What does this fold into?
Amino acid sequence: MRKSNYMNSSEIIIAGAAILDVLVRPASPEVFASGSWPAQEIRMEVGGDAINEATVLTLLGKQVDFTGILGQDAAADTVLQHCRRLGISTEHIKICPQIPTGINVVLVEEKGERSFLTNPSGSLRRLSAEDIVLEPSENTGIFSFASIFVSPLIGPGELKQLFQRARDRGLLVCADTTKRKRGERLEDLREVWPLVDYLFPNREEAALLTGEGDADWMADRFLEAGVGCVVLKLGAEGCLIKSRNLRIAVPAVEGITCVDTTGAGDSFAAGFLCGLLEGRDLRECGILANACGSLAVEAVGAARGIESRRQVEERAQRLRKQLGIE
It folds into this structure.
């Protein structure tokens, strides 16, 4: 067990969701006709975009400060216990007794695709920009906002202020996305994108914002909007890393059997963030990211497939050999 450090020596501040996931695999619509269904696995896991990133980064040896909100209930106790066991700082978690901690039911199909049942009145949807604490230490280099579009209370105006706060504190701003909730388009966040140094959308999320197009076309739309570097998650095709002066395509690790995609994008982002924290070049960041993502999809549950830094490095080395890099 790692010892939790509350003296704020964090290398990265991560903001966003911390919830409980109840995972069911395999789930079938036949349950509504039959009344019951013999799932192979039903498991409760700590999840949420931000806590998934924090978990993986901590397992990779990084000091993480998580900031967000929880209720005052058994679900919150489970999340806090998870953080303390791993050594994720809980100093800047706000406890809100008047709201329940978010719980998602994750229905995993036979091939690994997911559907969610969510509680719109839980903590997942009640996070506000005012709840996010930005108190970097001398070691802190990155602020990661784990999912644009998750919280209805954090719209474009709040994002602009939040990211500017991080910039004013000398932090690199990284952001992941989820699927838009209100039909937002790229133009709706025109004042936000220039404040984002690294953006991690997946193909579907990018297409909804930019309009349908190939990976390069979508990445270019984000760059034109002001994003510093786009890291486009392409699933079985790996990732595309693109800025104004470089383009790097990193393929996925070969020979992977996908069991559950829950948390795969968060694990991918954590791997990339780890590379950034260590000053690795962007190809190496992409290799680490793809290694983490490949491990995540091989097990049921968010980040459950990732056990140690050594395991991730072995998977990264496998990808380097696949690329012919010694």
